[in-house]
Backbone:
DNA sequence: AGTTGGATGGTCT
DNA sequence: GACCATCCAACTG
């Protein structure tokens, strides 16, 4: 699926803009992505075909597909393929460009929401305070590192599924940015898909900007 | 610095 | 009832 990789590469360096009433716009530069294909791709959510959950992946390109993973983290995808053929690019990490304080507030809200679900009492609340404090003092460049963390920082959840990300007036907008030097782009296997049948567990469809401090996970480049 | 296990809920078999 | 496109804290060395 060469087309999916091209689409993924074209998203590197693009800006993700989150507009919310009453607060400064949040802007992140996309520095890490993964390409996912259709039913043939055994690591893709589309492997089970066109279901209620995955229907957006089979829809028109440029729209959002947001899913919940491990019961807690929302993850943002950009649908890339032609209408009718499932494909999507998972946005795995952004480098904060503007609105860092609002991103931190978004991450803190996520933690608070989670804590509010827990039963009353116990040592949980003290631990939550420590977590909030630790998160607040984290270096800013890691606030959007990882698909779950970037969604928390940008207040993105499943309700964003189906949104047109190229609608300039929408709450979440993709804006073209300076493309990274092709020599700085590295490819590795996708993260967390070890369960998939070969070769889908190993295809190097994760793209990242080498050396960028906001990139997640293993930095070891695949030379190919 | 690297590894391990728990949290947690929707989706699919 | 099993399986996750994750994250963090608490371990080991």
Residues:
């Amino acid at each position: 699926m060469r087309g999916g990789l091209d689409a993924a590469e074209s998203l590197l360096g693009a800006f993700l803009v989150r507009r919310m009433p009453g607060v400064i716009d949040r802007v992140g530069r996309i520095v890490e992505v993964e390409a996912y294909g259709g039913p043939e791709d055994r690591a893709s959510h589309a492997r089970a075909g066109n279901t209620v959950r995955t229907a957006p992946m089979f829809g028109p390109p440029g729209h959002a597909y947001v899913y919940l993973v491990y019961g807690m983290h929302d993850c943002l995808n950009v649908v890339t393929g032609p209408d009718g053929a499932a494909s999507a690019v998972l946005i795995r990490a952004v480098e904060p460009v503007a609105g860092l304080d609002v991103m931190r507030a978004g991450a803190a809200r996520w933690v608070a929401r989670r804590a509010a679900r827990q039963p009353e009492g116990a040592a949980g609340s003290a631990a939550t305070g420590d977590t909030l404090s630790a998160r607040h003092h984290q270096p800013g460049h890691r606030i959007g590192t990882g698909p779950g963390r970037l969604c928390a920082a940008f207040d993105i959840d499943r309700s964003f599924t189906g949104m047109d990300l190229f609608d300039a007036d929408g709450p979440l907008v993709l804006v073209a940015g300076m493309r990274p030097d092709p020599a700085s782009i590295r490819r590795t296997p996708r993260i967390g898909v070890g369960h998939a049948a070969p070769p889908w567990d190993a295809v190097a469809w994760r793209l990242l900007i080498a050396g960028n401090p906001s990139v997640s996970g293993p930095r070891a480049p695949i030379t190919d």
